[in-house]
Structures are given as C-alpha cells and as structure tokens.
From TrEMBL:
It comes from Halomonas cupida. The keyword DNA damage does not apply. It is an enzyme of class 6 (ligase). Its EC number is 6.3.2.12, 6.3.2.17. One of its GO terms (cellular component) is cytoplasm. This is Dihydrofolate synthase/folylpolyglutamate synthase.
C-alpha cells in the first residue's frame, strides 16, 4: 500500500469506509482485536484513566457530563462518541474540541496499514472509526479517556479497551435485529464492558437482573444507584451522595440542573469519583451549569430537538415537555423514524405531551414513510396536520403556520434532528454571507 493510493480528504475516506465491508454492522471482537494488536493499541493504556459508557439511553449525556467534569478539574480529556449529527469530526473530541480532519485521516491510515498486512482483515465503517479514534487518543495519552459504546457492549469495538470504570446507564429494547427482544439478554450484552475487580456504576434502579448478576459473576465492584450513590432535591437544585475511589462517603449539594436526567448526572459524578479524581464542589457545579449536548432537548426559539428514538427516551422527553407549566399554546411534533424502530411505542410515550403531529419520511434502506407513521397516529385518534417527504420540507410547512405560543418538538431519529440542524446551519451561513456582502459594498 502506498500513500498515493489512499484518499486525500476526509469525505473520500468516509466514502471508502462505507463501501469496504459487506455489512454495516458485524458484531464481534476477533477482527477488530487482531488489527488493534497490529497497531500496538493493546501494548499500553491509551490514557491514564478510561471510563466506558454503555446503555440504551443516556450514554451521550453521561459522556458529556464526564467530559465537563474532567475539563472543570483541569484534566486533559478525550471523548469518543457515535453517531454524529452534522460532521464526522464530532465523534472524537480532544479537550472539548472536535478532531481536525488531518488527525482523523492519520488514524484511518494507521488502521489501513495494519488491516492490509498479511492476512488482510475486513473491518466495518464503525470498527475503522473506533480504531482510528483509539489510535489518535493513544498518541496523546490524556489523563482521561471517555468511550461511548456504539451498540450493545460485549461485542462492540470499543470493548477491546479495558475500562478502569464501566457505566451502564439504562437498559431498554432497541436495535432488536442485533440485540434481540429479551431484556435480560440485552442487559447481559451491555454488562459485557465490566471488568473483574474494577468498578462499575449502575446508573438506573430499574436495570434487568442480568446486569447485576454478570457483575457478581465476574467479581466487578458494583456501585448501584439507590444503594451506593443517590440524588435528592436540594432547594432549587439537587444533592448527590456517593463514594470516592477509596470508599469514603461524599456529599455535594446545591448542584444546578444540567437539563439531563438526574440519574445520568448522578452516575457521571459517581464514575468520575471512582476514576480517582478528588471532586471539587465548585468545579462540579460549574460543569453541570455549562454542559450542553446538541440534539438532546436542544431549544432554538419555538423549536426543540431531541434524538430520542425509542419509548424509554420518548417518555423522558414527554415528561420534560409536560413539566413546562408556563406553556399555554400547542405542542406540535415533527416526527421522523427509521423502519426498525418501535414507532408505535414512541408515539404512545409522546402522545400525552403532543397536540398535533407532522410525520416526515426519511431516506435510506431502513427508512420509514410518513404515511406509515400517519397510519399509526390515525389508529390512535391523534391529529395529523400534514405529511412531508423529508424533515426539511416538513419544517418549511410548519414555519408558515406556527402561532407565537406554539412550540415544536423534532424527534424520532438522529437523521431527523440532523436534517433540521443542517438546515439551521445553512441558513446561518447564508445570513453571514449576506451580511459580509453588505459590509463589502458599504466599505467599497
């Protein structure tokens, strides 16, 4: 393999990776582990501390809060997450900054050189991306690396790295084609990120029994919500109670609302403490006040974007909308979902908070048509305002019909949310170009 045969841009690399493996998802660690060994990724820790986060919902917000805690405490930190909303670069952040194209491409090159060595090994898009990100992290060896599992846990490419602290946020049904529908089986898959004699944070009090059973079977050190750590209301804020890495009881009070589920915030604090960091109360408060995550209850004017795509996530979103007692207008939902998701369950979970619906079609092999969503809605006697061919045209239709007191929830898929975010970004770019042209004319 020569450099001249390799792609010259990030977009070209990504196009090559998408076409390089016969299936998009191919669970198992044999292939990815073999390439990782060739790359030297198994020879030494990629960071001083590694926290791996698995779960059906809450992974992204937990990772975001762990990153915020790390930066507030002055630690160098790397985060690997998936999927992305607008740019692939979002998947790897170094000290809070998205990775540059050159670094991602260097990672892909390192993977490719190891992959094609005899015998050649085929890898999926996600596997190459994961190995490339781990290589980039290892080059810097930060004080903290936070890794988000893509799907499941036990057989996910992220799991080739031994976590110093594992976190399981929630377990619910999702990705049934790969993980099945038995909640205990799903729980056991997510529990696969645990390691013997290393701490694991169980971030929900309703996890299936298989999660704690697996922890006990392998001798992981369990820290469970409701028994080993907890959170309570504290005036206008909230209070966290947990344990340090040495087992010392800890309390942090007057914590601000991070606008994410409190269970996730409490689990992130517990995992961070178990990473051997001495928690500073003011640093934790500042991190929680400042943390943001695109696509999670993200507001812009009358519009709210949330990537929730299963009933568990939708139920939390509905609760957040229902908690807005001051709202007096309609709540409308622009809903776009993939064909392998539980649309009926999501609609049932959201319906108490929604007055009218606008289903939209998505593109791709797994796409679901707006007409199918409309049929589910009609069967439940729910109002369908309009059907649109795509999220953008749906948003265009809605914008001309919104009342000042209306609000719009955009949800159901990363694809739905990313389409609206891209639309906003393009509009902002166009506005900047117009402003720049006016300035040039004025100054001519």
């Amino acid at each position: 393999m020569t450099d001249s045969s390799l792609p010259k841009t990030l977009d070209a690399w990504l196009a090559r990776l998408e076409a390089s493996h016969p299936t998009g998802i191919d669970l198992g660690l044999d292939r990815v582990s073999a390439v990782a060994r060739r790359m030297g990724l198994m020879d030494a820790p990629i960071a001083e501390r590694v926290i791996t986060v698995a779960g059906t919902n809450g992974k992204g917000s937990t990772v975001a809060m762990l990153e915020a805690f790390s930066m507030a405490h002055g630690l160098s930190v790397a985060c690997y997450t998936s999927p992305h909303l607008l740019r692939y670069n979002e998947r790897l952040r170094l000290d809070g900054i998205e990775a540059e194209d050159a670094l991602l491409m260097a990672g892909f090159k390192a993977v490719e050189q190891a992959r094609v060595a005899s015998p050649s090994i085929s890898l999926t898009y996600f596997e190459v991306g994961t190995l490339g990100a781990l290589w980039a992290i290892a080059q810097r060896r930060p004080q903290m690396a936070i890794l988000e599992v893509g799907l499941g846990g036990r057989l996910d490419a992220v799991n080739i790295i031994d976590a110093d602290v594992a976190v399981v946020t929630t377990v619910a049904q999702d990705h049934a084609a790969f993980l099945g529908t038995d909640i205990n089986v799903i729980g056991r898959e997510k529990a696969g990120i645990m390691r013997t004699q290393r701490p694991v944070v169980l971030g929900s009090d309703s996890l299936p029994p298989s999660v704690a059973e697996h922890a006990r079977d392998i001798g992981a050190l369990v820290h469970a919500l409701g028994s080993d750590f907890n959170h309570d209301a504290d005036g206008a804020g909230w209070k966290w109670q947990g344990k340090s890495a040495s087992g010392q009881h800890m309390v942090l009070d007057a914590l601000p609302d991070p606008k994410f589920p409190r269970d996730n915030a409490a689990a992130a604090l517990q995992a961070f403490a178990l990473g051997g960091v001495a928690l500073e109360a003011d640093n934790c408060r500042r991190a929680l006040a400042d943390v943001r995550l695109n696509g999670r209850m993200q507001w812009r004017g009358q519009w709210c974007l949330d990537v929730g795509h299963n009933p568990h996530a939708a139920s939390w979103v509905a609760g957040q909308l229902g908690a807005s007692d001051a709202h007096v207008g309609r709540t409308l939902c622009l809903l776009g979902m993939l064909g392998d998701k539980d649309a009926e369950g999501v609609i049932d979970a959201l319906s108490p908070a929604i007055d009218a619906w606008l289903p939209v079609s998505l593109e791709g092999e797994r796409a679901r048509r707006a007409a199918d969503l409309a049929e589910y809605l009609a069967e439940r006697g729910l109002e369908v305002m309009h059907c649109a061919d795509d999220p953008g045209s749906g948003a265009d239709w809605l914008e001309t019909r919104l009342e000042p007191t209306d609000r719009v929830l955009v949800t159901g898929s990363f694809l739905t949310v990313s389409a609206i975010l891209d639309r906003w970004q393009q509009a902002s770019s166009d506005d900047e170009n117009v402003s720049r042209e006016r300035d040039e004319i004025r100054n001519a």
